[in-house]
Design brief:
A hairpin with a 2-residue loop joins strand 5 and strand 6. The longest helix has 15 residues. This protein has two domains: 58 residues, no CATH class; 139 residues, Gcn5-related N-acetyltransferase (GNAT) (Aminopeptidase). The protein has 210 residues and is of the alpha+beta class. The relative contact order is 0.22.
């Protein structure tokens, strides 16, 4: 997962010293890894992007949108219901490895998501099998949405909307007011759903590789 193995500026107004970038590159290579930087499109990082370009780095993957929403708007998306559990069982995780998904990346995501604290695992079942899933992490005043997946055969039925709205309603019950999620540019079905739910793009970022 790019988010799990990229170097990230901790401020959007950070103009890096080339020595800092070289230090990061060396640290990656000492561990046998290819250096990768996650660069938001903030103006304050123009100098850093120029420095990376001068070192032979460029955006290599689809840009990702960081989207924010008011929980009340998300909760009003649909009245359809989903189920929510505090643990992710094998049936839940199997959606990540189903047709249309990369099973290696999916299993890695399941391991990370299953270990998170203050988390609920949403699902809609068909004939006893998980058909759509999603994760809500409730921390630091936010509901952070992750792992939204719908099996190919179950798409277009509103199951993802039910999970999204349910995670938001639980957040409201816990006194939270805001939600955040990330989605790749070009994932139009997901972007359309999130925009209907009131999410708006706060910024985008790219992964820069040599």
């Amino acid at each position: 997962m790019g988010r799990a193995k990229s170097a990230v500026p901790i401020r959007h107004d950070l103009d890096s010293d080339p020595a800092t970038i070289n230090h990061i590159i060396s640290a990656y290579r000492e561990h046998g890894l290819d250096p990768m930087f996650r660069m938001p499109d903030a103006k304050g990082l123009n100098v850093t992007r120029n420095q990376l370009a001068g070192m032979g780095f460029s955006p290599s993957l689809k840009p990702t949108h960081v989207m924010l929403a008011d929980l009340k708007a998300v909760a009003a998306l649909t009245q359809a219901l989903a189920n929510f559990e505090t643990v992710a069982d094998a049936n839940w995780g199997a959606v990540f490895a189903g047709p249309g998904f990369d099973p290696v990346e999916g299993n890695a995501r399941v391991r990370v998501l299953a270990s998170a604290k203050n988390t609920l695992f949403g699902r809609v079942d068909i004939a006893g099998q998980a058909a759509a899933i999603g994760v809500g992490n409730y921390n630091h005043g936010w509901v952070s949405i992750h792992g939204m997946r719908t099996a190919q055969a179950a798409r277009g039925r509103g199951y993802a909307a039910a999970i999204l709205a349910g995670l938001a309603r639980i957040g409201l019950e816990r006194g939270l007011t805001r939600a955040v999620l990330q989605v790749e540019e070009g994932n139009w079905s997901a972007l359309n759903l999130y925009r209907r739910a009131g999410f708006q793009t706060a910024w985008r970022y790219d992964y820069w590789k040599a």
